[in-house]
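Lab notes, practical 5.
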Amino acid sequence: MATTSSIDAILSLSKRKGFVFQSSEIYGGLNGCWDFGPLGVELLRNIKDSWWKAMTYRDDIVGLDASILMHPRVWEASGHVGQFSDPMIDNKTSKARHRADNLIEDYIGRLRTKGKSADADKVEAALAAASSNDDLYRIIVDNAIPDPVSGTTDWTEVRNFNLMFETHVGPVADASSTVYLRPETAQGIFVNFKNVMDASRLKPPFGIAQIGKSFRNEINTKNFLFRTREFEQMEMQFFIKPGSEDEWFEYWRQERWNWFLSLGVSQDKLRRKPHERLAHYAKAAEDIEFAFPFGWGEVEGIHSRTDFDLGRHQEYSGKKLEFVDTVTKDRYTPYVIETAVGATRTFMAVLCNAYEEETITAEDGTTDQRVVLRFAPHLAPVSAAVFPLVNKDGMPEAATAIYTSLRKSFRVDYDTSGAIGRRYRRQDEVGTPFCITVDGQTISDGTVTIRDRDTMTQERVSADALDEIIRRRLQHSSR
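Output from the prediction step:
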């Protein structure tokens, strides 16, 4: 019998095993910021490598790594300076600050939990129809939505809060030196569109992919890694000829769905959610959502953005960002299909998807408990662990030789502490797919046992074949 994860269980495991730590924890922590530990950086790197290979190991997409700091006019052109804001409301009693729409959404969730579906539907309809901060304020007041901290309903007006972190370049901090930490990686791609097209001798349809840090001064961070102030994105902008956007949107929405399946994410924990209300520049938009322990949450967005982005940068910079076909003399500003996935959120989704608490019944009827992370093997932070059965009779020396050989190709652990069953459990808990045990027979015939994490079955194989066996199984899992 297996049970799945809770946020508390994931948080506990993450710290205990070195996946994720609270940033600056010894000073009380910094809200909305997290540090990836030794196992966390390996899992995150494997996820990013999987995305990079899926997106750029093809002939129509190239990579880019744009600067975090950009000219402030970039953010004026993109609309972030004037429009990148969330509706904020404060409770006068507790002084707690909330994002108004999230406050309403949480209230809707509580109504549904209490079986008040009709009331929830009414509030949800009002939220969907809201078009201003005044509308949000009226929903909160009319429904007497309480502050989660104090329980009171004494609210300020709803006002806009810009999410960009502001800083300065140079020795003088004034309006002329203001720059921003980027709130998304996409704009670095748009402003380099012509540079990349010319340097790489590409023509539409082609894409530019980038992995990088983004920063948003969220009103409220919540749900562990789901909403943070510093996070990593994996974005690709695909530049196409106007008129072909429907075909390419359909192509990329399927490609991106398939990628999540390739990570081993269970299909019943994924869903597609088309946007009911589109941005003024968008022709189509759809999110891929994952069933986190707290509910459904977006992990990736696929957007058909027309020529809005290149058109705006063309207008603000005064530089042509067009494609000119030298054969047909056709000239146009490309349309864009965007795929934007959160590396940090995908990390959390993969961790939640993999976590299981399992009761194991032995042949004699006794039971045992184990926590296991069922990562797709190619994502696992540690690919294999090597154990000498006992610390004598030449077994440690043979195990060390195998470990030294394998770590040239894979991330490998070596463990001599405790009974062999206890060592298996430690590796199950961090998701190691293969455990290799060196025993007395190894000394006589050069074979070892390799144990599978998920089935717990053991197979006798030649120690000399381990590199190829592990490589083949990791490659198979990544397809």
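Observations recorded by the TA: The first helix runs from residue 7 to 17. The two ends are 29 Å apart (CA to CA).
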